[in-house]
Design brief:
With about 400 residues, the chain is of the alpha/beta class. The protein contains twelve helices and ten strands. It is about 40% helix and about 10% strand. The strands form two sheets. Strands 5-4-6-3-7-8-9-10 form an eight-stranded mixed sheet, sandwiched between helices. The protein has a two-stranded antiparallel ribbon with strand order 1-2. Bound molecules: guanosine-5'-triphosphate and magnesium ion. The site of guanosine-5'-triphosphate has 26 residues, from helix 6.
Length: about 400
């Protein structure tokens, strides 16, 4: 398959640009939370790559209305869509590269297990162990071995056939959750609250989404709701400058719920279509901090009883099994409506997305495959399955 996604499958959320984008400098990421915010800082970011993003490629993500209800589609196909844009060395290449450790290990195991051996209880058990080690989750591992056993028991099986079954089963789990982020209804603004533990990529994802919505012609306001650190506020302001989005901020130490309230008032005043609210990273087992998120939501609802319209949980693909607990707690406390998984460009643990999908069934809206503004891709079940099982 091609590493350069065609515009048609380049996401419900993003499509290829009509014009190349200018190179962008990296938005500096504040240092890991320091002592000023000890309650948010107990888990260092799993990965905070210091390097700047790849210079912006010729492809910028722009938005397209997603697909849950075609009638809701808001992004027209433009004339420029007809022209094939310049090729970008692919995000899918990076996804594949990122998942190489996972896929190479699986592939090696499969060859080791099935070469010149019949498919029986022993080989199935060995395969199940290998799949669990790859973070795919017990449930998915069992589904895969069951699917494989059907009609093939006691027969020899080629490793390629095993990998094909693996890809098909992974895709089967992921298809229902691969749902582009969609601005539904007539909300003004659509309020998108972005939550997650420290360093997962929340602020960067907000920047990428702001870019995407702005390029779609929507007015965007950003709320610097990570009020713990001045550097976090600055980081969002830079994204605001870059994406021409107004940023509502207060000084460090301000009340996050009050800031969110102000931001929603302001976003209404300036007729924004989208309000993206950043929040401080917080560990899911910190009751007080989780309570603060609940307060943010309560306060927003004083202005708009339907807000927030999306609560995005940003997960770091390098985290591994802890991500399951993050999903559970943030879902219960903050009403997470969908997931974004970042850093899939460099992890041996990307299989966790399959386990999360099988367990929670929450929509996976997008994946991050790099630090650059274009490095947010709508999640594609088939591509992910192929990257894990067939590459
Ligand atoms: N490789 C890679 N790096 C990413 C991706 N998304 C974010 N990052 C990097 O991850 C680091 C943390 O990103 P932030 O956006 O600051 O994370 P955050 O969740 O806002 O962090 P806190 O506010 O400290 O909780 C930065 O160095 C980002 O550039 C991604 O998809 N791939
Ligand atoms: Mg942040």
């Amino acid at each position: 398959m091609s590493d350069t996604p065609s515009k048609s499958r380049l996401f419900g959320l993003f499509r290829r640009p009509s014009a190349p984008a200018a190179p962008e400098p990296a938005v500096p990421t504040p240092a890991a939370p320091e002592s000023a915010a000890p309650e948010t800082a107990e888990q260092a970011p799993a990965q905070q790559p210091p390097s700047p993003p790849t210079p912006q490629s010729t492809a910028q993500s722009t938005a397209q209305s997603p697909a849950q209800s075609p009638a809701q589609s808001t992004t027209p196909t433009t004339a420029s869509d007809a022209a094939e844009p310049p090729k970008k060395t692919g995000w899918f290449q990076r996804l594949k590269a990122g998942l190489t450790k996972t896929s190479a290990k699986l592939s090696q195991d499969i060859v080791g297990i099935f070469t010149k051996r019949r498919l029986d209880d022993d080989t199935l058990q060995e395969l199940e162990d290998s799949l669990i080690e790859a973070d795919l989750g017990v449930e998915t591992a069992m589904c895969i071995t069951e699917a494989l056993a059907k009609g093939r028991y006691n027969k020899e099986i080629a490793p390629a056939e095993v990998r094909a079954v693996l890809a098909a089963e992974v895709e089967r789990v992921l298809v229902p959750v691969a749902r582009p982020l969609r601005l539904e209804g007539q909300h003004r603004p659509h309020v998108i609250l972005v939550v997650g533990v420290n360093g997962t990529g929340k602020t960067t994802t907000i920047g990428k989404l702001a870019q995407h919505f702005t390029q779609e012609g929507r007015k965007v306001t950003l709320a610097a709701g990570d009020t713990f650190r001045a550097a976090a506020i600055e980081q969002l302001k830079i994204w605001g400058e870059r994406t021409q989005a107004e940023v509502v901020a207060r000084g460090a130490g301000a009340d996050a719920a009050g800031l969110a309230y102000d931001a929603l008032v302001r976003a209404r005043e300036n007729s924004s279509e989208v309000l993206l609210i950043d929040t401080a990273g917080r560990l899911q087992n910190k009751q007080v901090l989780m309570g603060e998120l609940e307060k943010v939501i309560r306060v927003l609802r004083k202005i708009d009883a339907t807000a927030p319209h999306h609560v995005l949980l940003v997960l770091d693909a390098t985290t591994g099994q802890n991500a399951l607990n993050q999903v559970e707690v943030f879902r219960d406390k903050a009403g997470v409506t969908g997931l974004v998984m970042t850093k899939l460009d460099g992890t041996a643990k990307g299989g966790i997305l399959v386990a999360i999908s099988a367990k929670f069934g929450l929509p996976v809206h997008a994946i991050g495959v790099g630090e650059g503004v274009e490095d947010l891709a709508a999640f594609d079940a088939g591509e992910f399955a192929r990257a894990v099982a067939l590459s």
